[in-house]
Every structure is written in structure tokens, then in C-alpha cells.
Design goal:
The protein has 3 helices and 2 strands, in the order H-E-E-H-H. It is mainly α. It has one domain. Strand 1 and strand 2 form a beta hairpin. The protein is elongated, with a radius of gyration of 15 Å. About 15% of the residues are buried.
């Protein structure tokens, strides 16, 4: 599964949460993950919703989730620094 396969509302939410980036080839990925890891992650989440997830994949999902969230928090932190060091003029 690719990010572009997600409904528009879900993509918008992920963008707002700073969860999406582009890799060096222009592929949309979850921040901090590769194309393959993003595909696995999105497929696993989808399968969990329907109760079809392989329990053996749970550990990999959790590791990727942590990797993704750490990268996402780094993005948010960098945005915060930019905003506080160069605040907009009103």
C-alpha cells in the first residue's frame, strides 16, 4: 500500500501531523521510513482494522512505529525552532 492509496482525508491528516515526507526518488513515505517500510506499516494498520493482521508482524510494526514517531517528532521540533527563532511579524 502507498500513501496515495489512502483516502484524501487520511492523507490530509497525515500531512497535518507532519507524518509524510518524500524520499530522494520523490516517493511519498512516512517520515523516517523507507518505501518498503511505509508499505508494510500501512498494510499492517489496514489489516489490523479488519482483524486480519499477522500476529508475527506485530513486533516489526512496533519498531517501525517507534522509528516513524521519533522522526516525526524531530520534524515537529525543527518547525518549532524555526517559528520561535523567526516569528512572523504582525
Amino acid at each position: 500500500m502507498k500513501i496515495t492509496d489512502l483516502p484524501d482525508e487520511r492523507q490530509a491528516h497525515l500531512k497535518e501531523m507532519r507524518a509524510i515526507a518524500k524520499d530522494n526518488k520523490g516517493n511519498e513515505i512516512l517520515v523516517g521510513l523507507t518505501v518498503e517500510e511505509t508499505s508494510f506499516y500501512l498494510n499492517y494498520v489496514e489489516q489490523r482494522v479488519f482483524g486480519d493482521a499477522d500476529p508475527n508482524d506485530g513486533e516489526r510494526y512496533l519498531k517501525l512505529h517507534d522509528k516513524h514517531e521519533k522522526a516525526r517528532f524531530s520534524v515537529l521540533g525543527a518547525e518549532h525552532i524555526l517559528r520561535t527563532e523567526t516569528p512572523s511579524i504582525h
